[in-house]
Amino acid sequence: MLKLDAFLIEGGRKLKGSVRISGSKNAALPCLFASLLTDDVCVIENVPDLRDIRTAVALLQQLGKKVVRKNSRVEIGPARRLQHHASYDLVRRMRASVVVMGPLLARLGKARVSLPGGCSIGARPINFHLQAFKKLGAAIRVEEGYVEATAPVLRGRRIRFPFPSVGATENALMAAVLAEGKTVLLNAAREPEIQDLAECLRSMGARIHGHGTGTIVIDGVPSLHGTRHVVIPDRIEAGTFLAAAAITRGRLLLRRVNPAHLSAVLNALRRAGLRLEVGRSEILAAWTKPLRPVSLKTRVYPGFPTDMQAQWMALMATVNGKSRITETIFENRFLHAQELLRMGAAIDIRGAAAVIEGGRRLSGCPLMVSDLRAGAALVLAGLAAQGRTKVLRVYHLDRGYERMERKLRAVGARIRRIAQ
Ligand code: EPZ
Questions:
Q1: Domain range holding 47?
Q2: Which residue has the higher pLDDT, 118 or 200?
């Protein structure tokens, strides 16, 4: 049974100290799945200890892989017999499981993966993934809640995505690395997590160019070999801690970050008036004066990430003045606004935009988390609020933030986990 832990937060403490940022969840997941493309040993390092990573490991095991995990190092050995079936039980726990489809199709010529269904932040269909597989020569069938792709051979093609979807780009990339001939992915996603996956695949012998741009060129190879790959730092965890420094009027040094991946978030914080000192792999964020409201729109990379939108809303709710946040990636990603209203924030949702009259004093109360980043926003609001906040359903946070409450406590937050 799911443990329904909650966080209890006593708000109003300035955070001070240093935080080590973990490896990226959204980069580690596809890198782990890339191991399906070979029978050699793959070692993936800097993997955060999260619920989603445990689901990914369970899925690899279900597919027949031998997985050994030691701290942040995951070693994936050969499969006795690689399976092609990803069950509903695991896919419903984590949508990113659909990204096993590309590598399975490339390796086995077939993949049967449960359709993930909708999620609280949007419908999130996988039509772009399936269109890409079809282009490469796969036949697609949907039956009994499963999508089945079969292709005796995959052939390289030009594939133009209608939208630069992160998951579809990852799936197409992993199908194409073992396809015959050249594949060109146009309007591909440019997120750092895609770049990291491409680097991981290259270290396995794949021939990939142009990752990090909208056009990725893949020359198929007959087979891939094992690798040792170190996952990039989690830019969203880093952004969340920067927001924590700002919202608590504190001073935090973030270690083991890649500031280049955070430019949109750093720009927004700078415009708001937060003092930032950026090093090669460190960022110092210090509140020195009252912040200004900053309006923004979420965009694909290098724009402001949708995964930081909720945290930005929490911050803007505490800053004097009016700001506007427009969500352009997901159609229902404002569920945190309703909870922030209950704390006393003034937020008006108008379609894809939220207008925030910031500066009202937030007061602690029980809050319900609807999804991972909404949860992060509510924790931030709780840290800034007067009184006690109880954040319910923190299992959403456990999917994507490694030891969040311990990291926050270490820099002065009064937060503890309680069992419900
Ligand atoms: C990835 O999801 C991330 N997840 C998300 O992070 C992130 O919010 C998102 O990219 C956008 O940056 C992982 O990497 C595991 P998309 P993904 O395909 O790949 C539409 C978090 O909090 N779309 O780029 O699912 C879709 O509905 C999570 O860590 C289609 O219409 O995102 C959405 O509106 C949440 N058809 C938009 O594109 C498709 O076939 C972007 O989705 C695919 C996507």
A1: 25-230
A2: 200
